[in-house]
Design goal:
2 copies of one chain form a homodimer. Chain A is of the alpha/beta class. The first copy, chain A, is 46% helix and 15% strand. Chain A has 14 helices and 12 strands. In chain A, the strands form 2 sheets. The first copy, chain A, has a 6-stranded parallel β-sheet, with helices on both faces. Chain A has a 6-stranded mixed β-sheet with strand order 7-6-8-9-10-12, sandwiched between helices. In chain A, α2 packs across α3. The relative contact order of chain A is 0.12. At the A-B interface, α4 and α8 of A face α4 and α8 of B. Chain A binds a DNA duplex (16 and 16 nucleotides) through α2 and α4.
Amino acid sequence: MSHRVTMKDLAQQLGLSTGTIHRALSGKPGVGKDVRKKVLEAAEQEGYQLNSIASVLKRKPLRIVVSFPDLSQATRYYYSDIWEGYRNYRKELTDYQIEFIEAPYGIRENQQSDVLRDVYQNIVKSKGIDGLLTVGPMDDPSRKAVQAYCAEEIATVFVNEDNEHCNRICCVRANYKIAGRLMAEQISNQVPPDGRVLLIAGDRNISAHNLQVEGFFEYITQHNIPFDVVRMYKYDQVEEEETELCNIIAQAQAISAICCVNARESALVAKFIKKHHLQGKYRIIGSDVFDESAKALADGTFTNLIYKSAYQIGYYGTKILMDYLIKDQQPEPVCLLDCDMVFKSNLYLYNDNLYRNTVRKLR
Amino acid sequence: MSHRVTMKDLAQQLGLSTGTIHRALSGKPGVGKDVRKKVLEAAEQEGYQLNSIASVLKRKPLRIVVSFPDLSQATRYYYSDIWEGYRNYRKELTDYQIEFIEAPYGIRENQQSDVLRDVYQNIVKSKGIDGLLTVGPMDDPSRKAVQAYCAEEIATVFVNEDNEHCNRICCVRANYKIAGRLMAEQISNQVPPDGRVLLIAGDRNISAHNLQVEGFFEYITQHNIPFDVVRMYKYDQVEEEETELCNIIAQAQAISAICCVNARESALVAKFIKKHHLQGKYRIIGSDVFDESAKALADGTFTNLIYKSAYQIGYYGTKILMDYLIKDQQPEPVCLLDCDMVFKSNLYLYNDNLYRNTVRKLR
DNA sequence: CTGAAAGCGCTTACAG
DNA sequence: CTGAAAGCGCTTACAG
């Protein structure tokens, strides 16, 4: 264990005070241009590494805004896992002096932008904050709200949705393509290669849905599986959906399997199957783990579920932001978390929040 | 953020020095019995929590011995993942002043005990160590070697194998029962319920193998699947194994699927299938991810693999030991990590060490 | 057995 | 823009 270079060492070497070294290295204002350069060079030269532990002790608390959808709506299962992942990583940070400001928002139009603007007015402007963790904005007002944060050099990490027009340090999301491939592979293990498969493809405007569809076809193409795939796009036509399902199922050429790329329609499929007493007639892979889908898997209505790593996204999103702020670790711009195939046999792992104590591979 | 109670606060309240408070709370010698009691009570009363960050700064480095099998032998794939998980968690601990002493051992008889005794003589006795991370001893000499550590109050965490006769704080291992259930469930999705299944059951003396077999039968019993399961126990009769496989496969009543609870025999099955050009004839689930098994999955010889969380065992084993030493967190005595079903579509996650950056659910 | 003091490596508030 | 000093909350070595 040879001596690790400290700020004191650099200060002595350069004939400066440790305060100046600190200001130079931390990018704080109040240090001459050439002095800063000299310090950065010496630090590089000597292989100086910030001691992230020591730096915690005396600094004032970091202030982080965490803003995800609240649990009032359709995405509540998904986001309760995101919140939980965030909270669990937060526990790892006890003693790090971090103040988390939670700002959940409803999913009505403009809710994200309203909440973010509100926090900006009330907190950012007065006390200042250091980091922002939220969903990449999908509408103009939200994007503008986030850009106001980024303009203040506030480190920003997006979950689920990216938005490259904001100066975010990274986006953490599920690897949807692999999710689609997994569905195709699992189905291809179970139904004859010339079988007919209903792919409930979600919304053409939602990239998470498209990527899964893409992955699905990629797999069957690469493996020369001549599935007859029927795609259904009724995500925003809730009323027509059941009729459409009836039509497809009533067709002369029977389907053997159903795959569904999103939670809402998975719930709908489960309901439909039970209503028409079709349990066991099809191989069905649903998306996400929540009350209805978990029940459907447990009772045999579904064969499997794809878990899209919501918990891990919350956990890693928080970790990546904090590693950036505390340890100066620069993440990849996009971090993909792989999805899991859920079986009856390991459903309890996803269902039982008590032991959700985890994490996942990162790409 | 109300003020958190510090040692200084306790010292003032009790009219003692912070040094005494520290000695009392940390269980160090050199403090009177009733003084210690008084301090512990006050700490309890005031809700004192150690600031684990501050405690790192001035203390001398913790010294941890890490001793797993080396990579010279049959278990090298499995243990390279364990080592890697340990190394990756270690990276999270930069700045925590921890000195890791790596003591890999060969798998010949008594290698573990020799190495542990050697380290004990050369390091423990002279410099002292704070923690031990190793495989729970499976023979008498190793058990005695470990007990010598535990007698010195050295915090000990076992991976893979437990041994309750040592005073370990915890054992971290895969949830083998779930692994067995997953195999049964996946096979039952793919072959007719009255199908014949060959279960390569490993060694009757190895609990990891037995638990998987148990889980397998548990699943098919609970779900009333009338599989005809043929068990094969030839783990230590390598020469007879191929003959036995030939016999079973040649039988009039054809088997539909093969499940294998361990890595060595999975490699053997892959070789056998390829040699006899039987690819695609059976559904086959192998164990563990390593060169041969990964190839067999990729080329369609195997349908799936069960990954027994080696990486995560190394990662969490290290974390649990360090959380105990640094944050005073008492773990559950047995921590079970769930296993993954590996598909062609996500094989790269297990195969590509570059991005092995992860973790798993803990029970 | 107990206290008083120094110091871990940073960050900050203050003075100039 | 820069320096000198104090201090974060612990741990340690020394003195008694």
